[in-house]
Amino acid sequence: MEAAHRRVARDLADQIAAGLWAPGDQLPSRASLARHYGVHEQTVRLAMALLRSRGLIEGEQRNRLYVAHPPVMRTLIAPDRDWPHQTEQIAGGTWKAGEQLAARLDVPLGTTLHHEALECLDPGGRSALIACTWWRGKRRPHASYAAEIEVMQLDEPQAHALGLTVDTLAYRVMRTRLDAAGQPTETADLILPMDRWTIRL
Fold first, then answer.
1. Are 81 and 169 in a shared domain?
2. Which domain holds residue 118?
């Protein structure tokens, strides 16, 4: 059975998608919505938190909320460029190289790697992409890079970090930095939601 706050959030999201409220419109008060749906105000608060995490509404939690403007579409043209805005580390530590990472970094299977996952924020403080990086030993400068692109579905941690639903489609850019001799120095997965990005290489 669907939780009450998820039912309220789904109905409000459907109404926003149908154009009942336009970007910038103020939503009814929580008390009004609670009466309309026949639920407790705390249920409405949970529904609003869910809608905020998905980027559908904006505003301070204790004040009135507004329908969010659609996220800005960005174009990725340089996968090797460092993110120019604020980042927040969401994971870090060591990682054992599985088959794919071992091949990408040209290291033996099971090699201990350093790992870092960053949530990259746009100038407005919204999640724009996730960058997961792995490297062996000390980080070294690189001379070039190679990149491959595929389409994937977000898993639960990725979706949570980006404020989206599980199984949302995203681009996965697998970028490997190389030294002057062509040897890998580090590899990264750049996770870019398809509703926020186009790619032009």
1. yes
2. 74-199
